[in-house]
# Entry
Amino acid sequence: MPADDNDNQRISGYGFGTVDTVISVDQVQREAEKIADEGPTLERLDELAGDEAFVSINNLRAGYGKMEILHEFSLRVGKGQSLCLIGPNGAGKSTVLHSVFGFTNIFGGSVNVGSLDVTNLTSSQKLRRAGIAYILQDKSVFGGMTVEENLWMGGYLMDTPADAKVAAEKVFEKYPRLAARRTKPAGVLSGGERRLLEISRALVMEPDVLLVDEPSIGLEPRFIDMVFEILDDLQHNEGKTIVMVEQNAKKGLEFADIGYVLVSGQTALAGTGEELLANPEVGRLFLGG
# Structure
């Protein structure tokens, strides 16, 4: 049976329009390089952060092994703000998060949280001393362990297991949906529940900064909305500072206070989420229209 016209118009990748608007990943990269120009000034980055940055990255050169991915990269986000990084594949978006949390080699530059230089701290030190938590992409729960045991694992840096259990109970109080499944193996949870567990596990240590890597990846639309509602609550009701990478650029920019477009390890464009959503070049390359 032949597919109808609507089926023929479906696309994937960056675009959300028709086959007339979708472009290849390689073309996105080439076109994005054209809009990079000289990139935003530090004054503009400071302005977007309210001139009082809580998380700041300064002229960072970082990568894996001897390969440099980020080139003189700078970032500013104020306390209680959210920032979304978008850009073509290989632009260095996740490398920014990895560098903040300590998963890359740093060749130059610095990372600060508040008044603390965290550049050379280990990931454990960053979580304990600077309150930085990293929420990984999907499939980071321990499927054979219960929901409760997964939360206890989130408190692995606490002084005693009892402290972790107390912190886990606070999370259960906040999210009754998880509390109802506390004795169930995490492997039987739905996709949305697993993502809620991943976020909740990061909250056990009561971090100030959440590094969120692709929160919508692999989720059905109804669960995507749920996850962003949770992140919105954490930002606006608990004052968390959020730095996010999101492949659904439209959803990420609708959520975030600030957006950066990364190209080849550098910031090509920076603005409020609303400004980037309204930018025709961003729309053409990353929003499908």
